[in-house]
Amino acid sequence: MKQITKLKEPNSLLQHRAQQFAAFDNIPNATKEELKENLLSEQGHICCYCMRRIPENSSPYMKVEHYKCQEHFQDLQLDYRNLLGACTGNEGHPKKLQTCDTQKSSETLTINPLNTNPSCETLFKFNSEGEMSSISDDEAVDRQINTVLNLNMQSLKDARKEVYYVVQERIRAESKRTKNDKPSFVRFLNQELQVWQSKTEGKYRPYCLVAIYYLTKKLKSN
């Protein structure tokens, strides 16, 4: 779950919210499309929860997620800070295969990609099998990962495992190349970390937090 820094909300959403009887369900299509583009831009075209890529032509592949659900927080249904961009989460498939907003439904989360103190990025760890878990073995966080959002579904674990392996192999190769040259190796780690933390053409790499976690851990040990 990559930390999200919210941009200025679209003017069209602000104007819609000012209308009498405005609700999320009666947002004009053009306003919803602009909203989606804003959400994608600030999130670097990855899902707010699982970090999979959301394609450029977002509408068929994206949902506007209400962090605090509409069912219980009607007053926040048009609050821009409550709106996130989520993948479709295997909507229409069996429940055990659903993820993210589709799996979450009206459940309440405490882990929030907008949080900065602490950053949501500091709450998670990843192992070589792509499994995601609480870095402090917090049962509440693990429940949200596994039950509420189903972020350890096998296909997501496989995707994260691939990122873990790619980064691990690059580090191993560089470690051999810079043997006995610790400053060069540390410089490489920092450069790799910068790549995974940064957007390229407005996009983060899918599952980027796996690499960020692994590289940060390596830097601390060097």
Automatic annotation (TrEMBL):
InterPro entries: HNH78-like. This is TIGR02646 family protein. It comes from Chryseobacterium lactis.
